[in-house]
Each structure stands twice: as C-alpha cells, then as structure tokens.
Specification:
Blueprint (H helix, E strand, L loop, with lengths): L28 H30 L4 H18 L13 H15 L5 E5 L7 H8 L6 E6 L2 H13 L4 E5 L2 H4 L9 E5 L4 H13 L3 E6 L3 H8 L3 E3 L2 E4 L6 E5 L2 E3 L2
Parallel strand pairs: 1-2, 1-4, 2-3, 4-5
Antiparallel strand pairs: 5-8, 6-9, 7-8
Helix pairs in contact: 1-3, 2-4, 2-5, 3-4, 7-8
The structure holds S-adenosylmethionine.
The site of S-adenosylmethionine has 15 residues, from strand 2.
Length: 256
C-alpha cells in the first residue's frame, strides 16, 4: 500500500524535504526547533554548573547537603517552566544569586535549629536552610507562603529533598504566632520594607528568636525608616554574594 502525505495524495518520498535518494534533506522545522531548544538547555546546564562551583566556594556544604540542593534545583528548573518561581534572568546564576545567598545565613546563626522563613516564594532562603539543617537533631524550618501554587512547590521541594520543612499556606499576619514551639531564627528575603518585616517577626522575636533579613543596597534608608517605629540595635553583615546586606536583630521594641 502506498503511504500518503498529510493533506495530499503524493507519496511521502516525493514530498519536498522528505529526503529522496542522493539528496541531502533539511531538518523539518519542528526538528530544528527541538535541536535549538536542547542546545540552549545544554548551554544553560553548563553555565549553571560553573555558577555552582563559584557558589560552593562562597558557601561550602557537605556532600549530603549538595545532593539535596541538586535535587531542589532540578525540581525548581522543572517547575519554573510553568510557574514563575524566580526571575527568569537569574536562572543562569541560581547557585550564587539564590543558593549561596541563602546559605550564608547558616553561619550567622550557627546554633539555630528551628527556623521560620516568611514569604518563602520559590524557597529562598527557607528550602535551602531546610536542606542545610537535614540530619541535625531537632531541626525544623517553617515556610510561610500565601500563594497556593508556590506552597505546593515548596511542599514538593521538601519531599524530594527529604529535609525538615513544614509548609504553611497562609498569610504571615494570621499565621506567624501559630507556629508551635519557639523558633531560634526568623528570616525573610525580598518580602517587605524592614519596618514591616519587624512587625511580621515580632511575635517570634518576643519568644526569643533572632532575625536575619536579607536586604539590598538601600539598607540605610530602610533602617532610618524602621527606627521611626521600632527601637532596634541592628548588626549589619555585608553579603557574601553581592552588594546587599544581612540585617541581624536580636531584640525589638515598638516605639512610644
Ligand atoms: C518577592 S517574593 C520573594 C520570595 C523569596 N523569599 C525569595 O527571596 O526568592 C515574596 C513572596 O512572599 C509572599 N508573600 C508576600 N506577602 C505575604 C504575606 N503577607 N503572607 C504570606 N506570604 C506573603 C509572596 O506570595 C511571594 O511568594
């Protein structure tokens, strides 16, 4: 029986580009697209691998933690295709920009085992901290996020990394004082201006938590604003991964 090309009655072997004997065929457009996409994926893979080497120089981790972080990044890249978890422009620098940025907090609270990360989004710093805390006795990382899709991603990330995270799909204001048991350290990145972050974290800080907030270059202006509402004695740590700062607070008191 003769094969028919789609939408016509000419034999397939006679279609233009079908590659008759002695004639070099051009790849069909769909195939060309796939080849280009996979070349792009491979280029991105090697950029990310180089960035990972840089990141692990800035923030070294154990082999076990690295394995967990690899699984997390693989999942994030898979989900990123359908859900915006990080700014697409930061994908080549996932490890330095997001992973190392988050890991630097571990050294600033070396005895902390129980953490709460507010507004976790795609998991920075919360999932990274959970990966780093895995295997430590008594470790837990609470991740608070109000968008259901992101909370679903965070749950999956905690599952695939087998790390001690607890995801709360909730508004911070409604949830933060319902986190059971005391927390040693409360964190947030790219969530809100400092004076609001302090308001979010205050219930946990009253119970003894210290706060580590990842902030950008305009930290001085945010501190000036925060000082209108709060008595604070901030300690500033220059970020290991860029121009930003980590603001450390061990106590806060509402003014007047
Ligand atoms: C800009 S993203 C930053 C995410 C992550 N911390 C990071 O640095 O990549 C802020 C996240 O906080 C969440 N968020 C903002 N306000 C919140 C609130 N009041 N309660 C819970 N989640 C909140 C948003 O849904 C979003 O996912």
């Amino acid at each position: 029986m003769k094969q028919r090309g789609p939408g016509g009655d000419r034999p397939l072997s006679r279609r233009p580009g079908a590659g008759g004997a002695g004639r070099r065929s051009e790849p069909a457009p769909a195939r060309r697209k796939i080849d280009k996409a996979s070349a792009n994926d491979q280029a991105l893979d090697s950029i990310i691998a180089a960035d990972k080497r840089e990141a692990l120089k800035l923030a070294p981790v154990s082999r076990e933690t690295e394995d967990r972080l690899d699984r997390y990044i693989a999942l994030l890249r898979e989900w990123q295709a359908k859900t915006n978890l990080v700014a697409p422009s930061t994908l080549p620098n996932l490890w330095t920009r997001h992973i190392a940025d988050s890991l630097q907090l571990v050294d600033l609270a070396s005895t902390a085992r129980r953490w709460a990360d507010l507004g976790s989004g795609g998991g920075f710093p919360g999932v990274v901290l959970a990966c780093a805390m895995a295997g430590r006795p008594g470790a837990s990382v609470h991740l608070v996020e109000r968008i259901a899709k992101k909370a679903a991603f965070l749950r999956e990330a905690i599952r695939v990394t087998t790390s001690p995270g607890v995801v709360h799909l909730a508004e911070i204001g409604d949830n933060v004082d319902r986190i059971t048991g005391p927390v040693d350290c409360v964190t947030a990145r790219a969530l809100a201006p400092l004076h609001q972050l302090i308001g979010f974290a205050e219930p946990l800080m009253r119970q003894g938590a210290k706060a580590l907030f990842l902030k950008g270059q305009d930290v001085e202006a945010e501190l000036t604003e925060a000082a209108k509402y709060w008595n604070i004695r901030p300690q500033l740590h220059q970020s290991r991964t860029g121009d930003g700062w980590v603001v450390e607070l061990t106590s806060v008191e509402r003014r007047g």
